[in-house]
């Protein structure tokens, strides 16, 4: 499909900016493992504080990269399947809002004025520009949804009895989830945190802010994942040489995420005493429920891959695994997707552990937690993003992939690194190794009284994995930017792999309409979050003065302690 130069440029920028910033995120990810291994016994390195780097790593990798890519991929998907382009003015306004917001937040983080971690929890306080930047990024990402909805309604009027393309359904589901969940964090940022950061209010309701954040924070995981799911259902079967086992299964899974991805955020607050046990129990049940769409996907994609392998001559129970195109440079996107699927097995299993109230008490705020979510956001999410980014750029620019054999090795090298890295974190977490902590200052400093030698092997394993991941990332950057700098050799078109369905079930109106699912989603949200928000408002505590991440004492208390000797001296 030929698209306008304006849309091409827009997608190029929305892919290129986050990939360029990813280099900063990857660097700080490596530095985190080095700090935690005890190789550095300082709070700063090269002028950047540990928590400053942790914030840059989390925000760039988990928010900026994923949001820009989701918008770019959404534009490509909607244009390709609906055969019409989004409104150019709306799309460019969206881009500039996201870009300006990112620059504002990046300045605050790089200047050391927003070391509040990826979760930007109070009582950690950032510069107002950080919160304004986050708000602009979110609002900018909303605009495409409204235009895509217009495109979808126009297409549906012309094709009333035709099933909505699965990729279009997935894109709209993903951004509806995003819009709903970001309403809460927008309220947190604009109403609670921004006035507090500007000094207009002295304290903030920490429990309410946490609850609003996790209304957004867990649904964010599915905002990350659903572009990968769209690729699994609509592209992976074609790339594998087969057909999607069931079209209906994909629709059921996507609508399942629409219902259950947002109302489960309170399970991140199992350790929060102000949330009552009844609310936590209900949230636990909902969290187990959201695993169902993932199980549907696992079985559907497994059957799809088996069909593809058998079409390619596989025999025996598991012989199909040996017939898949793992190292085919022409189908390199298969390598990125299959590697991500493999990692997601471990991400899903460890996620079920976190959903259990009892088991969560064991691993809460330990290194187990980043071990888990690196299996998801740094597994299928990250690999799908970088694989599709280089694929889209190559096809839309008419340029061949630079170093194609290196490109197809990158995802497998990344898998090796992630498995070593996350195993080290998970093992350390089971031994009580804390997360979000510069272990090199204390627990892994032999000269410190808190030195804990049993964490040496776990952190060394994590840093070894981190080094391998960094090598894989550097190779990807060479491939991506080498492709950008190469010469055009083919026709520049928007082209996506399109999979046929082996079982292309007839159109069922329930699974081809958003209205009943949106109503059900609203009912579940009210049932899940009304009690939680009531608890957060009823038991807020005294409010929170400002803290910094590296000091357990409030800034006001620290300042008072410093001023006290001077006051005595004056007397």
UniProtKB/TrEMBL annotation:
Residues 1-512 form the Cytochrome oxidase subunit I profile domain. The keyword Amino-acid biosynthesis does not apply. Gene3D superfamilies: Cytochrome c oxidase-like, subunit I domain. Keywords: Electron transport, Membrane, Respiratory chain, Transmembrane, Transmembrane helix, Transport. Pfam families: COX1 (PF00115). The chain crosses the membrane at residues 12-35, 55-82, 89-109, 129-146, 166-193, 213-236, 248-266, 286-305, 333-353, 373-394, 406-427, 460-485, 516-534. It comes from the Bacteria. Residues 540-571 are annotated as: Disordered. InterPro entries: Cyt_c_oxase-like_su1_dom (IPR023616), Cyt_c_oxase-like_su1_sf (IPR036927), Cyt_C_Oxase_1 (IPR000883). This is B(O/a)3-type cytochrome-c oxidase subunit 1. It comes from Flaviaesturariibacter amylovorans.
């Amino acid at each position: 499909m030929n698209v306008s130069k304006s849309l091409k440029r827009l997608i190029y920028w929305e892919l290129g900016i986050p990939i360029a910033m990813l280099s900063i995120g990857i660097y700080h990810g490596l530095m985190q493992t080095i700090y935690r291994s005890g190789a550095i016994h300082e709070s700063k390195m090269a002028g950047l504080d540990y928590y400053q780097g942790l914030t840059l790593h989390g925000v760039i990798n988990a928010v900026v990269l994923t949001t820009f890519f989701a918008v770019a991929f959404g534009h490509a998907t909607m244009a390709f399947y609906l055969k019409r382009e989004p409104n150019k003015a709306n799309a460019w306004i969206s881009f500039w809002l996201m870009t300006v917001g990112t620059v504002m937040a990046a300045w605050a983080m790089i200047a050391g004025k927003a070391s509040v971690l990826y979760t930007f929890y109070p009582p950690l306080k950032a510069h107002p520009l950080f919160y304004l930047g986050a708000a602009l990024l979110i609002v900018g990402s909303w605009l495409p949804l409204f235009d895509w909805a217009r495109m979808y309604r126009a297409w549906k009027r012309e094709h009333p009895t035709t099933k909505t393309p699965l990729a279009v359904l997935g894109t709209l589901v993903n951004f509806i989830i995003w819009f709903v969940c970001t309403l809460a964090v927008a309220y947190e940022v604009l109403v609670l945190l921004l006035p507090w950061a500007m000094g207009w209010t002295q304290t903030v309701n920490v429990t309410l802010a946490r609850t609003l954040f996790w209304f957004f924070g867990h649904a964010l995981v599915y905002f990350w994942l659903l572009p990968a799911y769209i690729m699994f259902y609509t592209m992976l079967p074609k790339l594998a040489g087969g057909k999607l086992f069931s079209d209906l299964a994909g629709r059921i899974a996507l609508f399942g995420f629409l219902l259950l991805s947002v109302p489960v955020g309170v399970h991140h607050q199992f350790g929060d005493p102000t949330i009552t046990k009844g609310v936590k129990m209900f949230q636990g049940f909902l969290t187990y429920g959201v695993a169902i769409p993932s199980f549907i996907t696992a079985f559907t994609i497994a059957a799809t891959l088996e069909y593809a392998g058998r079409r390619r001559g596989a025999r025996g129970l598991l012989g199909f695994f040996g017939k898949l195109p793992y190292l085919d440079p022409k189908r390199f996107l298969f390598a990125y997707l299959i590697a991500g699927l493999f990692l997601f097995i471990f991400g899903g299993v460890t996620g079920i552990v976190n959903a259990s109230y009892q088991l969560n008490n064991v691993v809460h705020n330990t290194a187990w937690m980043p071990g888990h979510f690196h299996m998801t956001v740094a597994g299928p999410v990250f690999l799908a993003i970088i694989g599709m980014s280089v694929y889209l750029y190559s096809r839309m620019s008419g340029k061949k992939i630079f170093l194609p054999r290196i490109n197809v090795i990158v995802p497998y090298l990344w898998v090796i690194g992630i498995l070593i890295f996350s195993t080290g974190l998970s093992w350390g977490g089971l031994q009580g190794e804390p997360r979000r902590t510069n272990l090199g200052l204390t627990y892994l400093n032999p000269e410190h009284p808190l030195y804990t030698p049993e964490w040496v092997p776990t952190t060394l394993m994590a840093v070894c994995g981190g080094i391998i991941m960094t090598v894989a990332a550097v190779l990807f950057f060479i491939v991506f930017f080498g492709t950008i700098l190469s010469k055009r050799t083919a026709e520049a078109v928007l082209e996506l792999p399109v999979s046929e369905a082996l079982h292309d079930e007839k159109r069922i109106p329930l699974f081809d309409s958003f209205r009943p699912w949106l109503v059900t989603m609203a009912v579940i949200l009210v049932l899940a979050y009304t009690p939680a928000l009531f608890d957060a408002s009823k038991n807020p505590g005294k409010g929170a003065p400002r803290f910094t991440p590296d000091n357990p004492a409030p800034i006001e208390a620290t300042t008072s302690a410093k001023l006290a000797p001077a006051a005595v001296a004056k007397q």
